[in-house]
Amino acid sequence: MERNLIIITMAALMAAPTVKAQSDDFGVWYEVGAEKKLSRKWNVAAEAELRTRDNSKETDRWSVGVNAEYKLLKGLKASAGYTLLYDNHAEELDMKSDGLTPNKWTPAYWSPRHRLNLTLSGSVDWQRLRFSLRERWQYTYRPAAEGKRYDLDEDSWVDVKSKSKSVLRSRLQIDYDIPNWKFDPYVSAEMFNATGGIEKMRYTLGVDYKWRKQHTFGLSYKYQNVRDDEDSNRHILGLSYKYKF
After folding, report:
1. What does the alpha-carbon distance between residue 85 and residue 59 come to, in Å, rounded to a whole number?
2. Is 161 helix (H, G, I), strand (E, B) or coil?
3. Which position among 21, 50, 208, 225 has the lowest Cβ density within 10 Å, counted as fewest Cβ atoms?
4. Is the pTM of this model over 0.70?
């Protein structure tokens, strides 16, 4: 018990500067995907993604997903998808109400999450501009992780409980088609609505380069503003590639 108390206390001292000095973080998101048009109305796609954090020094997560899209009307599409995420959870330290005594300690660990989404998106063109609105309901389930958290009161390792969460993501985007130019810029703003209200905002400025109709390369800058004091705002460099069959 005394040995464990020393370990938890040392973890608290190391974590304290990090907790007090919450600042904006930087990461890189790498994404590669493929899309296949099955008919005039049906499209299927698959993608894989890798994200970094802590000024891109640490892997944040990787994921793979599949998606099916159906064209309802001109400019209106519906889709459904599934994504498997594998997260690198950062070390956590829970303190008791006095703010000085360690209560529970969770070392860094990896665990999966399962995500489902239903999406409805509409777009309208005006001259060389395209305005689009995407509404996405997202459900994520995290299974329990056995023996990942140390409880000081029980003097034993306990499970991290399972957790589920629903989020409504609303994104407004404007694309511009530059005449006789293969670089197409866009801007977007996305709002994440959870049970407690707006969880975060994500603003994006990017450009896509299309080569031979099948290949699309993307470069973007994202700024993610979070409402949770325990998390950090993020500056994100996005690099992507998509192949169309």
Report:
1. 13
2. coil
3. 21
4. yes
